[in-house]
From TrEMBL:
CDD domains (UniProt xref): FHb-globin, flavohem_like_fad_nad_binding
Catalytic activity: 2 nitric oxide + NADPH + 2 O2 = 2 nitrate + NADP(+) + H(+); 2 nitric oxide + NADH + 2 O2 = 2 nitrate + NAD(+) + H(+)
Record function comment: In the presence of oxygen and NADH, it has NADH oxidase activity, which leads to the generation of superoxide and H(2)O(2). Under anaerobic conditions, it also exhibits nitric oxide reductase and FAD reductase activities. However, all these reactions are much lower than NOD activity.
EC class name: oxidoreductase
Globin domain segment(s): 2-139
Cofactor: heme b; FAD
Species of the source: Bombardia bombarda
Protein known as: nitric oxide dioxygenase
Listed InterPro entries: Cbr1-like_FAD-bd_dom, FAD-bd_FR_type, FNR_nucleotide-bd, Globin, Globin-like_sf, Globin/Proto, OxRdtase_FAD/NAD-bd, Riboflavin_synthase-like_b-brl
Keywords: Detoxification, FAD, Flavoprotein, Heme, Iron, Membrane, Metal-binding, NAD, NADP, Oxidoreductase, Transmembrane, Transmembrane helix
Amino acid sequence: MSLTYQQQKLVKATVPALREHGEKISSTFYKTMLSEHPELNDYFNAVNQKNGRQPRALTAVILNFAANISNISELIPKLERMCNKHCSLGIRPEHYEVVGQYLIQAFGEVLGPAMTPEVLVAWTKAYWMLAKMLIGREQQMYKDFEGWTSWRKFNIDRIVSESDDIYSFYLVPQDGKRLPAFLPGQYVSVQIQVPEGNLQSRQYSLSEAWREDYYRITVKRDEGSAYSNSVSKSYFNPGLVSNILIDQMTVGMVLNVSHPAGEFFLDLNNSSNVPLVLISAGVGITPMVAIANAVLKSQPDRQISWVHGSRKAVPFEQHITQLRKNHPNFRTTIFKSQLAQSDTASVTYDHNTRIDLAKISPEDVFLHHGGAEYFICGPEDFMIEMSRNLISRGVLASRIKLELFTTGDLALKFNKKVMHNV
Ligand SMILES: Cc1cc2nc3c(=O)[nH]c(=O)nc-3n(C[C@H](O)[C@H](O)[C@H](O)COP(=O)(O)OP(=O)(O)OC[C@H]3O[C@@H](n4cnc5c(N)ncnc54)[C@H](O)[C@@H]3O)c2cc1C
Ligand code: HEM
């Protein structure tokens, strides 16, 4: 299925024109595909279609692939994120036929007469080269899922408020069978019916270390964008799924859940004992709870330093306090930007400001160790700021892992921006 030298040249020659019209490709390709294959609306995040994030992400990957078609090894680590996302959403090899057809049709519309029969053949081959890499990796992952390759029904067994707008859902499988192990940091997708009629899925990090009887996810209400005037503050475009989960889902109700997936994890199968630095903001705390709990259970002496920032209440506050009491090797630095009357310095918080790594001693983020691993999760700008700070103080980019709670294009741009330090 590889391209001849001539075909590689044909594909590469069209990339600048396709890049220039990337927005048009993104919008027409998905619009046509989803109107002619409405069943695919159940797979795609409706909001990411409206704001163009997902179509842009897919087109960008394909064009980058085409531009570097003679040297694709750089792309391989990036495929991991896509394949994990695809597998957590139940994407199948037959879906690639549909996507390929509409994508190449959109390329044809943009290129016009430049889409000669030879270019069409070359592009079709190029698409399938990439698609086969993804399909191959996804088949391997589905095999590891041992039969749980679609949605599995879970009962909501318990809902616990973790702070004003953050709730944990304890999910027990309806079939009563033992739950497969996952690596701390990974997520599941949750699928629900939305009022518009179709199904929508979102990812939620597992917020508890693996247990065979339940999984726990922790959901923050997405209020939407704030609009305020001199008298009041209101919100528009509230998040679809998080608000339904929090306002309408009750104990005993059923949720469709996917097999755990994700490439942001601590590899517990690796015998490493290097210190861990967990840096989280807001609801980015969720994968960190799973990582801390899993490590303190299996490697109770491992050094962990957790830096967390919340605007107000810190979710899982009591639990974190308990971990600190029980494990001298577990230290925390808590930043809170808005204090309540009940807050006490050095007890419920350490610094009354947004997270600022400069306020933490180098030892507390293991800067001199040389081998520590860094896990960061929070808003995009926050993660960029934290990574830049660490890299500028000598931490190797390869020792930093980031989890972005959104999809696509920014994730790719973002990795490039941070890792190449531009
Ligand atoms: C790997 C991963 C792990 C995650 N883990 C967690 C977790 O542990 N906990 C957690 O709470 N979340 C987590 N998330 C985020 C979660 O998946 C959802 O994105 C989040 O709950 C918001 O979903 P929603 O359906 O409520 O909002 P959506 O409806 O998807 O809306 C998202 C945003 O888009 C805006 N929006 C809505 N409509 C429009 C429009 N027409 N135009 C422009 N903007 C619009 C909304 O205001 C909102 O801010 C994770 C995401 C990923 C990718
Ligand atoms: C070569 C083909 C493909 C490429 C390059 C590709 C690329 C991508 C990328 C870059 C993402 C974003 C990952 C992230 O950062 O979260 C993504 C997500 C996704 N992809 Fe694909 N994809 C391909 C094929 C498909 C197919 C065949 C389907 C199914 C019809 C599909 C459905 C999805 C869905 C539903 C998401 C998540 C969307 C969201 O959350 O907004 N993709 N893909």
